[in-house]
Design a protein that fits this description.
The structure holds two protein chains of two kinds. Chain A is α+β, with helices and mostly antiparallel strands. Chain A is built from three helices and two strands; from the N terminus they run αααββ. In chain A, helix 2 packs antiparallel against helix 3. Chain B is 40% helix and 21% strand. The radius of gyration of chain B is 71 Å and the shape is rod-shaped. Classes of the chains: A alpha+beta, B alpha/beta.
């Protein structure tokens, strides 16, 4: 159960996380929620922001080219500019 | 007598004449298509006509299949080919090897025709356009592996996001192979499912050079793609079918990279901004709560918590004072009333009567003697005076003649036994 929730959290797309973060910021901006809720929102927001930042670092720097080998299968090779 | 020929001979002779004619063996004819039939064998049969006459035409499958546009009745065309005689029927016809729309080029017409067809099928509908991901895991590029296009895309990509992965699918971008390769690349990239967005790109060129991007097979493969596709074919002013069916059109390959890849610094700045904003807002909220708390604390009721109690206490004291005062007055009132009553009582008191010299005589058992018949000689009587009692012994009893028996009590003669004494304890106040 916990694992699947965790899994879902990890699969969240960058833009979804960004959108949630924006919503939280605007909620905090309105300021009509209780202090407890504000603190909860803040914690969620910080977590989302960390998640987004990790997504920004996550990509793998690489340029590849797809080529066909003798059997006609596609193989990935480094591409030199 | 002229020479007599067979029909075959003369038709064959005419055919030779026509075939050897410098004009008829290779010419172009302008006219309007009519009686157009696209036979199931792939051959096209039609006539072209002007205001005065018609010319029978045929275009065989090998040429008909590479026509870029679909001829239609009424269309003005320029047909190229040669005139020949069909000996069996004794008829001549125009054997067309190529056909161009008169006025606009064949490619233009083909472009318009395919565009209209795909549009009516809904392939360009804006509601089926897929949204580009803000941050793709990696981007696929379908273009030539040589040339400026891929380098531009790589440069722009790394300027914006230095860690982005680029997967190049090399294809021919012009020539007869190009359309098939481009369509296959899109299909393959969908199967591999490694990229989140695909850029189809080519540098500028003539309509002929860009033609692969106007082929139906390319349009269909883009339409079928589950991965969003950005089209960047030719210069900004060149429009291709590929542009219309793609999810987004970019004016240049560099612009396509800009659309596909986010500027990581902008995103980081945005995130940082959110963080700062959230922190500030939370601090603001906390300050607000503190202020509220402070305000509440500084309220009168918290600063002087016993104030209200003291007020009530004062009020209570006051009330009590009133109560006591009222009570006192009531008491005084009662006292004075009592005084009056006591005075009245005093006046009515038998003691007052005794003070005036009257006395009360009692029998030993306590009964008051009011009639002489109550006593006999020798009885001991007690006589109560104003300030004491006297014990007496009856020596004689006489009844007043003139007074009725009921009033004869007073003059009972009693003998003093000389035992008169003050009974101080019984003295009246």
């Amino acid at each position: 159960m916990t694992k699947s929730v965790k899994q879902a959290e990890n699969d969240k797309s960058f833009e979804d996380a960004m959108l949630e973060l924006e919503e939280i910021v605007s909620k905090l901006e309105k300021g009509d929620v209780s202090l407890e809720e504000s603190i909860m929102n803040f914690q969620q927001g910080i977590e989302l922001s960390r998640y987004c930042a990790s997504k920004l670092d996550e990509a793998e720097k690489k340029i590849s080219i797809l080529l066909q080998n003798e059997e006609g299968n596609l193989i990935e090779k480094d591409f030199d500019i | 007598m002229n020479k007599v020929f067979s029909v075959s001979d003369i038709n064959n002779y005419i055919k030779q004449l026509v075939a050897n004619d410098g004009i008829l063996s290779g010419l172009s004819v302008r006219g309007e298509i009519s009686n157009f039939k696209h036979h199931y064998t792939g051959h096209m049969y039609f006539t072209i006509k002007d205001n005065n006459s018609v010319l029978k035409c045929v275009m065989f499958k090998s040429q008909a299949s590479i026509l870029k546009f679909a001829p239609q009745n009424g269309e003005k065309v320029i047909v190229s080919g040669y005139i020949s005689v069909f000996e069996r029927d004794g008829q001549y016809q125009f054997y067309a090897s190529d056909m161009q729309p008169d006025g606009i080029g064949a490619l233009h017409l083909a472009f318009e025709q395919l565009k209209n067809k795909l549009q009516s099928e809904g392939l360009f509908n804006s509601d089926i356009k897929k949204k580009l991901p803000v941050l793709p895991r990696s981007i696929g590029v379908v273009t030539s592996s040589t040339g400026a296009v891929i380098r531009d895309i790589i440069n722009v990509t790394y300027r914006r996001h230095s860690n982005m992965k680029i997967l190049l699918y090399p294809v021919a971008v012009q020539g007869t192979q190009a359309a098939g390769q481009i369509a296959a690349a899109i299909k393959k990239l969908n199967e591999l499912n490694q990229v989140d967005v695909i850029i189809i790109a080519r540098g500028g060129g003539s309509l002929e050079e860009l033609w692969a991007f106007n082929e139906e097979i390319v349009a269909r493969s883009i339409y079928a793609s589950n991965i969003p596709i950005i089209s960047a074919v030719g210069h900004e002013t060149d429009f291709t079918i590929c542009d219309f069916v793609s999810d987004l059109r970019a004016p240049t390959p560099s612009a396509a990279a800009e659309l596909a890849v986010p500027d990581v610094e902008v995103l980081q700045y945005k995130l940082q901004n959110y963080n700062i904003k959230m922190k500030n807002l939370l601090v603001k909220k906390l300050t607000m709560c503190q202020t509220q708390l402070h305000k509440a604390n500084s309220r009168h009721v918290f600063r002087h918590p016993y104030d209200k109690v003291n007020q009530y206490r004062l009020k209570l004291d006051n009330e009590l004072k009133h109560l006591f005062k009222n009570n006192e007055m009531l008491l005084k009132d009662r006292k004075s009333q009592f005084g009056i009553l006591a005075g009245k009582l005093d006046v009515l008191s038998p003691l007052k009567i005794l003070e005036r010299g009257y006395s009360v005589t009692r029998l030993p058992e306590g009964a008051i003697v009011s009639m002489v018949e109550q006593v006999q000689i020798g009885d001991n009587l007690e006589i109560c005076l104003a300030n004491g009692t006297v014990d007496c012994n009856v020596v004689s009893v006489s009844l007043y003649e003139s007074i009725s028996a009921t009033k004869a009590s007073a003059s009972t003669i009693v003998k003093d036994t000389s035992q008169v004494y003050f009974r101080e304890d019984k003295a009246y106040d």
